[in-house]
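hiii, so i know i said id send this last week but things got crazy w the move. better late than never?? heres the sequnce for the chain we talked about at the cafe, plus the structure i predicted for it. fair warning i was half asleep when i ran it
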Amino acid sequence: MNFRNKKHKPLEVSLTPMIDVVFLLLIFFMVTTSFSKETSIKIQLPQADGQETEQHKQVLRLTIDKSGQFFIDGRALQDKSLATLTKALTAAVTNKQMPLVISADASAPVQAAISALDVANKIGFKSISFSTQKE
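okay and structure toks below
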């Protein structure tokens, strides 16, 4: 028997189709991705050297203690949820023109004060201020 010695070509992996697929996936993700702008709140707490604001006869006071518990005119709310705060502020307000003064403890979570401000804006308060203490 005469077997011919065939020259075997070395096996090669063609990377061209894989590169095509990778570029197609890259283009797909670039087109379908929606970029959202991350915003951060940079705050510097105000100094208490400013002028005192005018005093109103009727003022609604919202107090936040160091644990984040809300108090409206000295009465504690049942829990720390925003739904409870919304209901309590809506029930306590007699007039949307009534000023709201938010007094937060210095060690209170900043998110609690921001959430209270958002709730007050959604309810429709026209005058919202934060109280500070003189140093």
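btw The chain has a mean pLDDT of 80. thought thatd interest u
miss u guys!!
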